[in-house]
Design a protein that fits this description.
6-stranded mixed beta sheet, about 200 residues, two-stranded antiparallel ribbon, alpha/beta
Length: about 200
């Protein structure tokens, strides 16, 4: 019988064996279309890597007005401290209050740091990544899942989002540069060599 944890266990071992890519950190990005399952997969990968593996969600850095224009904020607030081996600190964007709010969050310079969100594999970040994974689910299927998840109340947001995501990936595609593709199945995840893989 297929063990759904096997591929994650193997992937975690492979990631831990990679050389650091940002100071002492192996920065691993999980990209894909909105609704493709990035958050759930990344949580399970973090578990496979061991308790305490930090995860940064790009939804915490993006805003209504800057869906994809968060690169400078990421570079100064996240990349710079991690490269020094220091803890990065940031406040998450509150999508209801439409502002950065709440207590400051800490992102330690751990051996592995996971970054998940649409655009996590953008060209400006790729030089700092130890590995780039792409959730390999078709755009229309991903968007259908995302809209079902978020409900009718978010229909107007999704209209703008789909236009912005399409423009982002047209200008700065991620999938061609992914080392690994992740496909979800009823039994777990299948991890395959990506277009930029060396396997």
């Amino acid at each position: 019988m297929h063990d759904p944890t096997t591929s994650l266990t193997v992937l975690a071992r492979r990631i831990r064996a990679l050389p650091p890519s940002l100071g002492p950190v192996r920065l691993v990005a999980v990209d894909g279309h909105a609704g493709s399952g990035k958050t759930t997969f990344t949580a399970r990968l973090a578990e496979a890597l061991g308790g305490g593996t930090p995860v940064l969600h790009l939804d915490d850095l993006a805003t209504h007005d800057e869906l994809f224009e968060w690169t400078d904020r990421f570079r100064t607030g996240i990349l710079a401290p991690l490269a020094r081996g220091a803890t990065a600190r940031y406040r998450a964007y509150d999508w209801t209050a439409r502002r950065f709010a709440g207590p400051e969050r800490a992102l330690p310079a751990a051996p592995v740091v996971l970054l998940e969100g649409v655009g996590a594999g953008r060209s400006a970040l790729r030089p700092h990544l130890a590995c780039l994974l792409w959730m390999d689910l078709d755009r229309s299927d991903s968007w259908d899942r995302g809209q079902l998840r978020d409900g009718a109340g978010q229909a107007e947001f999704w209209t703008g989002w789909m236009r912005a995501e399409r423009a982002h990936f047209a200008a700065d595609p991620t999938r061609p540069y992914a080392e690994l593709l992740v496909r979800q199945s009823p039994l777990g995840y299948e991890v395959l060599p990506g277009p930029h893989g060396t396997d």
